[in-house]
């Protein structure tokens, strides 16, 4: 018997949920409750369209796009509910990791406009190209470049030397 | 895990700060653990199910409320693409575009959003209706529907027209749109459907905004299914809004003939051509993974019916079917839901009440009570069953011929024992599934 669609979906969800959740944590600058909510919403949307997924080449990448769009539409609807730094990453730091820097990064991300944050997450965490980022966000490549430059400048200003220090360890 | 280094499709080499940022993002992101967050997948699954149910309610429930059955997701897909899930609840009413609300695009489902200027749709509406004052919502917007308020001096009335593609252009999924619904689910005063010279199909229904008629808002609607697979769906109300507005006149402004003239206008052709093509799918639109189709459910239901019952009406959709049966003592509605993978909500379903567990692990819950959708003297008998691996079959029977109708008899035509036999039949597990 061929694998049922539901099984396929569960397999997909089990494999991708961790990454979706981590992306959501970065998008929400550390609000793990909102991140859980966004992850579930994304999985729900993927489930609802799963029957049609056969024609969408890369469901994993598509789910990331859905997540970012879900996040942005959430931001538009409820601008004030985000709790920056609601929780810190809940894993104990490992050797060479700097909890202070993580806090600084999440704090710096929280200082960005949601769409700028989405650009940063797509470009530097998801490793999307400018064009792919533009597609995911329904904006032009030029807009992504502008946002990217602006966000990087802001992050550089906030994080300053600490990031270089981390990176050279 | 995302990789930053040496990205083949990047636009420019990343250096210095960008490299460092990537490293810190990865380190920080990986620091968030999903351990102990098992509810993520199950919660996602539950939401997905709810989303499908909502969509189906929006599509069939809404359509049942006013018109058609068995549509599938095309209508729903388009509508979700237009207005997002929150507005899709108004499907049968009027699919109104929600300016600025892009939730629908996050849906990312199926067809791309149509980009027809609302003013073009408005122009065709105006050109093909009797003269009067018009005010259209979001006239500078784009989409595939227009909602306006029409005033001929006899009271302001909401009017909407939506343009859609039927499922993949083949008739079956779209045909449900232009067949009069059963009065089991929805009251209406008049409904006609048929094929026009040239092969297009038309349904005109004069019904109500609320299936229980709790307000006097009427909704009259005409739906045209062209033989090349387009749907033109026009609705009018006797109030300036679909819901929540006082009625301003006894009836909506346009007669059935005028509505027909509107949906069959040649002016729609160039606009319909602008609708994006639907993506091909291999699961029937509207179906949930593992679901059984409406026709299969109906035929299985019929095969399991006790002798001596006459079927006077029937229909179904993915995972759902109903029959109206009569044993000579009055009509009785008999409904069934067949739902795979419901194990995660088992505790909510079988956590209380008269529940027994069979030797094979199947749970059976019997409920006998007052019908939830009303109707004078109506009782509902329900047998809800689920296998150990979450395959749920729930059957119920009313002592009335439809929801919100008054009792026709003292008890439903099927006894609890008969309902149990039907719900627990191995045929449900064997029925073909998507």
TrEMBL record, chain A:
Record protein name field: SigE family RNA polymerase sigma factor
Keywords, alphabetical: DNA-binding, Sigma factor, Transcription, Transcription regulation
UniProt domain RNA polymerase sigma factor 70 region 4 type: residue ranges: 104-155
InterPro entries in UniProt: RNA_pol_sigma-70-like, RNA_pol_sigma-70_dom, RNA_pol_sigma-E_actinobac, RNA_pol_sigma70_r2, RNA_pol_sigma70_r4_t2, RNA_pol_sigma_r2, RNA_pol_sigma_r3/r4-like, WH-like_DNA-bd_sf
Family stated for the protein in its record: Belongs to the sigma-70 factor family. ECF subfamily.
RNA polymerase sigma-70 region domain mapped to chain residues: 24-79
Entry annotated with the keyword Lipid metabolism: no
CDD domains on file: Sigma70_r4
């Amino acid at each position: 018997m061929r694998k049922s669609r539901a099984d396929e979906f569960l397999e997909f969800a089990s494999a991708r949920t961790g990454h979706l959740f981590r992306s959501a944590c970065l998008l929400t600058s550390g609000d793990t409750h909102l991140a859980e909510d966004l992850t579930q919403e994304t999985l729900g949307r993927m489930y609802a369209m799963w029957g049609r997924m056969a024609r969408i080449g890369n469901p994993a990448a598509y789910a990331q796009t859905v997540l970012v769009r879900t996040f942005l539409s959430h931001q538009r609807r409820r601008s004030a509910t985000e709790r920056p730094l609601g929780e810190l990453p809940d894993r104990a730091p490992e050797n060479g990791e700097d909890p202070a820097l993580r806090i600084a990064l999440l704090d710096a991300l929280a200082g960005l406009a949601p769409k700028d944050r989405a650009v940063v997450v797509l470009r530097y965490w998801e490793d999307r190209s400018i064009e792919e980022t533009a597609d995911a966000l329904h904006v032009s490549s030029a807009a992504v470049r502008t946002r990217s430059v602006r966000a990087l400048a802001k992050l550089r200003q906030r994080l300053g030397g600490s990031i270089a220090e981390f990176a050279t360890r | 895990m995302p990789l930053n280094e040496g990205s083949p499709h990047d636009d420019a080499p990343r250096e210095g700060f960008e490299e460092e940022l990537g490293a810190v993002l990865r380190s920080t992101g990986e620091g968030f653990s999903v351990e102990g967050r098992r509810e993520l997948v199950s919660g996602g699954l539950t939401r997905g199910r709810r989303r499908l149910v909502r969509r189906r309610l929006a599509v069939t429930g809404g359509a049942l409320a006013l018109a058609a059955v068995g549509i599938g997701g095309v209508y729903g897909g388009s509508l979700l693409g237009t207005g997002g899930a929150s507005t899709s609840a108004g499907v049968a009413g009027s699919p109104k575009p929600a300016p600025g609300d892009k939730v629908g695009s996050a849906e990312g489902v199926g067809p791309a959003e149509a980009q027809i200027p609302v003013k073009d749709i408005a122009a065709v509406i105006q050109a093909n209706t009797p003269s009067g004052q018009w005010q259209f919502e979001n006239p500078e917007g784009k989409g595939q529907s227009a909602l306006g308020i029409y005033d001929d001096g006899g009271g302001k009335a909401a009017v909407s027209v939506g343009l859609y593609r039927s499922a993949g252009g083949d008739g079956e999924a779209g045909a449900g749109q232009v067949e009069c619904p059963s009065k089991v689910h929805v009251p209406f005063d008049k409904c006609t459907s048929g094929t026009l010279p040239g092969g297009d199909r038309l349904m005109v229904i004069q019904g109500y905004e609320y299936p229980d008629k709790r307000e006097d808002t009427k909704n009259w609607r005409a739906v045209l299914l062209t033989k090349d697979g387009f749907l033109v769906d026009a609705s009018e109300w006797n109030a300036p809004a679909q819901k929540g507005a006082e009625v301003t006149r006894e009836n909506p402004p346009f007669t059935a003939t005028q509505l027909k003239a509107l949906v069959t206008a040649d002016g729609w052709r160039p606009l319909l051509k602008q609708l994006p093509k639907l993506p091909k799918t291999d699961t029937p639109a509207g179906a949930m993974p593992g679901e059984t189709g409406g026709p299969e459910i109906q035929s299985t239901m019929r095969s399991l019916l006790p002798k001596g019952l006459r079927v006077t009406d029937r229909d179904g959709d993915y995972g759902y079917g109903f029959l109206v049966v009569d044993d000579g003592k009055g009509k009785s509605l008999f409904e069934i839901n067949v739902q795979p993978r419901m194990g995660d909500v088992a505790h909510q379903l079988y956590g209380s009440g008269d529940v027994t567990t069979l030797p094979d692990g199947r749970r059976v819950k019997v409920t006998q009570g007052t019908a939830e959708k009303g109707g004078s003297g109506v009782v509902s008998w329900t047998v809800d069953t689920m296998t150990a691996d979450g395959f749920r079959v729930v059957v119920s029977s009313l002592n009335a011929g439809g929801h919100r109708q008054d009792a026709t008899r003292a008890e439903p035509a099927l006894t609890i024992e008969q309902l149990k036999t039907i719900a627990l039949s191995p045929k449900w597990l064997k029925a073909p599934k998507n």
